[in-house]
């Protein structure tokens, strides 16, 4: 057994060599529950942790090692210890990870580590921990991303070590594409990532650092139908004019969406009492990004028309439209010389149309001159 660093400790002196070796290893790699010299070493990761603890940088990636590849893990750690710590492989990698390994053989091998010294020129690498890299931003949020709209996000790697960032986006149809990654070259070692979804549905965004998944990767992102730009939508037509529309008479206006992208059109027509949905209207696709709305107001008075595109109100809304009362010829009375019989040639004849006081109509004054 080796000469211990705490040889003068009374408690250590009273321990068996096995207890002293186990205690030393536990102090070296406290993050692992090492309690024996058999089962605790079966996946090879504890060997990597011990080697890296004795010489930080020899096995910096041991935490990411695949426990399903125990022989490879043990071989990597033991070879590094042999080459750079002077710890010969008195037991084979295939033996140390075996469930029925001889405990004394493992102890003999591990007892060389307390006196191991790092040789000059060792290929020490920065510690790598992909799970300490993190991603944040719109492009990995569960909702809020749209078809044919850029979905950006940031990957921060300051605590993850040295490695390459790779991002893959898989759409609902199984198509997988690599996203564009740009290093920001800042103190937090961040990377700007962007992709443009082509279809709606659930997308899987995989973020890898040094070939390993970062924290929470892969991310599930729901891509929705793109909403257009309401500011580029215009509307015009008699149905939006301030005056000139009459109750019970159909009118219309056209909506122009060229250059505004994709979006649903919603029309709200509010009557003089402030109620919506009291006026029937119809929306027709006329082609070439033109939509016609036809409606027939049933009451006179001031109406407000609101037009939305993609959930946003378009410019100039609301339109205020004064609806005049429907014409009723029976509510008018004509009088004057022009309405009487026996009008002579070249005689000026006045004609006056008078509405009932409770009616709203247009007054017309005509001067009639009979011809030969």
From TrEMBL:
Intervals holding Filamin repeats: 125-223, 225-323
GO biological process, one term: actin cytoskeleton organization
Keywords associated with the record: Repeat
Top-level taxon of the source organism: Eukaryota
Stretches the record annotates as Disordered: 120-141
Pfam families: CH, Filamin
Calponin-homology (CH) domain span: 15-118
Any one GO molecular-function label of the UniProt entry: actin filament binding
InterPro entries xref list: CH_dom, CH_dom_sf, Filamin, Filamin/ABP280_repeat-like, Filamin/ABP280_rpt, Ig-like_fold, Ig_E-set
Keyword Repeat: yes
Family per record: Belongs to the filamin family.
Name of the protein: Calponin-homology (CH) domain-containing protein
Organism: Hymenochirus boettgeri (Congo dwarf clawed frog)
Organism lineage string: Eukaryota, Metazoa, Chordata, Craniata, Vertebrata
């Amino acid at each position: 057994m080796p000469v211990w660093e705490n040889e003068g400790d009374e408690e250590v002196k009273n321990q068996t060599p096995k207890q002293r070796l186990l205690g030393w290893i536990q102090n070296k790699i406290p993050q692992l529950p090492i309690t024996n010299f058999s089962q605790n070493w079966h996946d090879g990761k504890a060997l990597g942790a011990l080697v890296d603890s004795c010489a930080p940088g020899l096995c910096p990636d041991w935490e990411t090692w695949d426990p399903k590849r125990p022989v490879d893990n043990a071989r990597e750690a033991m070879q590094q210890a042999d080459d750079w710590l002077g710890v010969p492989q008195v037991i084979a990698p295939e033996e140390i990870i075996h469930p029925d390994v001889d405990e004394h053989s493992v102890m003999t091998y591990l007892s060389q580590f307390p006196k191991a010294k790092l040789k000059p020129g060792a290929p020490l690498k920065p510690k790598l921990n992909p799970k300490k890299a993190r991603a944040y931003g719109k492009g990995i949020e569960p909702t809020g991303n749209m078809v044919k709209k850029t979905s950006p996000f940031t990957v921060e790697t300051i605590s993850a070590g040295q490695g390459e960032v790779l991002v893959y986006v898989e759409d609902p149809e199984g198509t997988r594409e690599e996203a564009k990654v740009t290093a920001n070259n800042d103190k937090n070692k961040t990377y700007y990532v962007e992709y443009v979804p082509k279809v709606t549905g659930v997308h899987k965004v995989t973020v890898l650092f040094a070939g390993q998944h970062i924290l929470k990767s892969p991310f599930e992102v729901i891509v929705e139908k793109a909403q257009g730009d309401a500011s580029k939508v215009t509307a015009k037509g008699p149905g939006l004019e301030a005056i000139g529309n009459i109750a019970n008479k159909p009118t219309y206006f056209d909506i122009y969406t060229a250059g505004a992208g994709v979006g649903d059109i919603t029309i709200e027509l509010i009557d003089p009492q402030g109620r919506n949905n009291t006026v029937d209207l119809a929306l027709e696709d006329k082609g070439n990004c033109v939509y016609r709305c036809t409606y027939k107001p049933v009451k006179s008075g001031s109406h407000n028309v609101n037009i939305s595109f993609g959930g946003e109100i378009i410019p100039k809304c609301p339109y205020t439209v004064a609806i005049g009362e429907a014409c009723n010829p029976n509510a008018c009375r004509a009088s004057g010389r022009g309405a009487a019989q026996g009008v002579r040639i070249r005689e000026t004849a006045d004609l006056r149309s008078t509405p009932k006081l409770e009616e709203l109509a247009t007054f017309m004054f005509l001067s009639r001159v009979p011809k030969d």
